[in-house]
Amino acid sequence: MKTFEDLIQEVQKPGLCRQCGGCVSFCRAAHYDALEMGPKGEPRYKDVSRCSECGLCYLVCPEVNELVEETRARLSWAEPIGSVDMVCMARARDPLIRELSTDGGTVTAMLLHLLETRRIDGAIVSRQPGPFQRLPFLARTKKDILLSAGAVYAAAPEASFRGGRCSTYVSSASSLPELEARGVARAAMVGVPDQILAMRKMETMHITPSDRIQYYFGLFCSGGFEFGPRRRARLEAMGGFSWPQVERVNLKERLQIHLTGGEQADIPLERMDFMIRPACRYCRDYSAELADISMGGLGAPEGWTTVIIRNENGKKAYFEAREAALEEMEPSKMAPLRTTALELIRHYSQAKRRRGVKRRAELEATVA
Ligand SMILES: Cc1cc2nc3c(=O)[nH]c(=O)nc-3n(C[C@H](O)[C@H](O)[C@H](O)COP(=O)(O)OP(=O)(O)OC[C@H]3O[C@@H](n4cnc5c(N)ncnc54)[C@H](O)[C@@H]3O)c2cc1C
After folding, report:
1. CA torsion sign, 313 to 314 to 319 to 320?
2. Is 218:313 a contact under the CB 8 Å cutoff?
3. For residue 263, how far is the Cα from the chain centroid?
4. If the chain, 368 residues long, is cut into consecutive pieces of 10 residues, what is the mean pLDDT of each piece?
5. Cα–chain-centroid distance for residue 86?
6. Does residue 294 have its Cβ closer than 6 Å to ligand 1?
7. Is 168 in the pocket of ligand 1 (CB under 6 A)?
8. How far is CA 143 from CA 133, 170, 289, in A?
9. How many helices (H) and strands (E) does the chain have?
10. Strands 264-268 and 254-259: what pairing?
11. Is residue 277 within 8 Å of 167, Cβ to Cβ?
12. Domain extents for the chain?
C-alpha cells in the first residue's frame, strides 16, 4: 500500500503536485489529521504519528493513475472529452449576477437556484481577497455565493496588489472538511478539472467528504497562471497596456484584457507559457471531463457561458435553473454556436492532453 510518503516522492518532488488539496481534505475530513496544507499551499505532514498509512491520500491524487479507469467507467466517460449529453449557451437572468461574474454568471445563478430550492446547503467555491488572489471558501448564503462570483480578475488599483502569491489557482478541496464542521450535508462543488477528479476518485471509494457533494460543476481550464509582479510587468509590455487601465481579465481562446474605454488587449495562450504554474503544465484535462456540468467562456459570445451537460444529475439541475434563474440563448442563434463551441473545446482539450502527456513523458525520462 502506497502512502503519503510515496506522494511526496512520486508527485511532490518531481513538481507534479497541483496543490488541489484533495489528499489533505480526505485526511482532515476522516479526522486522521495527519496532513495539512503548508504555507506555500503544499500538502505536508502535520503530525506523522497520526498517519495510519491507509493509503487513501495516495489514491485520490489526480496525478496518480490508480482509480482513474474505474472512475471514468462509473461516470460513463467517453473519448474525446468525456460524456456529453448537451451543449448550451446560457446566462443568469439577474443582471447583477451577470455584472459580478466572469462570463454569463451561469455558475453563480445555478448555485443560487440550488441553494434557494434547498437542494444544497452550501457550495465549495473560492473568494477573492485581492487581485489575482483567491481563497477556498464554503459559501452557505446567497451573499456568500454572490461574493465569490467571478473567476479571474476584476479591476483593482495597483496598490491593492498585496504581497503573497497572485495566482488564478486555488486549493478549493481544502475547504471540504468544513462541510461537516459547519453542518453542510449537501453541497455543490465548483472546481477546475484536477479538483473534480480528486473528488470523483473519493466518490469511487465511497470515502468522506465526497458523500456530501451532490453536484460537481467543472470549469474549463487552460491552466492556473501566476500573476506575480515580474510576470505582470512582462504581460504589460507584451500587450502594450498598463495595469491601471485594466478593468477585467478573462481566459477564453486567449487571455482577454479588457481596458477602460472599451479597448481590449489580447494575449495568445501560447505566449503565456512563462506564467503557467509549473504543475499545471502536466494537466491533461481541459473541460473538467468528470463533472456533472462543465462551464467556460470558450465558444460563447461575450457575456454568455458555454455549458456542457454530462449526465442526468447535471441535466436536472440545469433544466430546473433554466425555468427560474437562467436565460438560454435563442435556439436559432445557439445551434451554429454550439457546434463551433464543441469543436473548439475538443481542439483545446486535445492540445492540452497532448502537451501534458508529452511533458510528463519528458519528465519521467529525466527522472529515470
Ligand atoms: C484557473 C481558471 C482557468 C480558467 N480557464 C479557462 C479557459 O481557459 N477557457 C475558458 O473558457 N474558461 C476558463 N475558465 C472558466 C471561466 O473563467 C469561468 O469560470 C466560466 O466560464 C464560468 O463563468 P460564469 O460567469 O458562468 O461563472 P461565475 O458565475 O462567475 O462563477 C465562477 C465560479 O467559479 C469559482 N471560482 C473562481 N475561481 C476559481 C478557482 N480558481 N478554482 C475553483 N473555483 C473557482 C467562483 O467562486 C464562482 O463560484 C477558467 C477558470 C479558472 C478558475
Report:
1. positive
2. no
3. 28
4. 96 95 93 93 95 96 97 98 98 96 97 98 89 85 95 57 69 88 96 97 96 97 90 92 88 91 91 93 97 97 97 98 98 96 98 96 87
5. 20
6. no
7. yes
8. 20, 20, 29
9. 12, 14
10. antiparallel
11. yes
12. 68-367
Cβ-contact 311, 75 below 8 angstroms: yes
DSSP string, 17-73: -----HHHHHHHHTT---EEE-TTS-EEES-GGG-----HHHHH-TTS-TTHHHHHH
3-state secondary structure 117-144: CCCCCEEEEEEEEECCEEEEEEECCHHH
The total of other beta-carbon atoms located within 10 Å of residue 172's CB is 27
**C-alpha grid cell for residue 170?**
486555488
CA 150 / ligand 1 centre spacing (Å): 7
> Does ligand 1 come within 6 angstroms of the Cβ of 295?
yes
Mutual angle of helices 193-204 and 22-29, in 10-degree steps: 40
Q: Is 191 in the pocket of ligand 1 (CB under 6 A)?
A: yes
What is the dihedral sign for C-alpha 170, 176, 182, 185?
positive
What is the model's pLDDT at position 154? Answer: 58
Cell 437572468 belongs to: 93
Cell of 75: 461516470
- What residues contact residue 278 under an 8 Å CB cut-off, 6+ apart? 15
pTM reported for the whole predicted model: 0.96
Q: Quick one: pLDDT at residue 234?
A: 94
Q: Whose CA is nearest to atom 12 of ligand 1?
A: 296
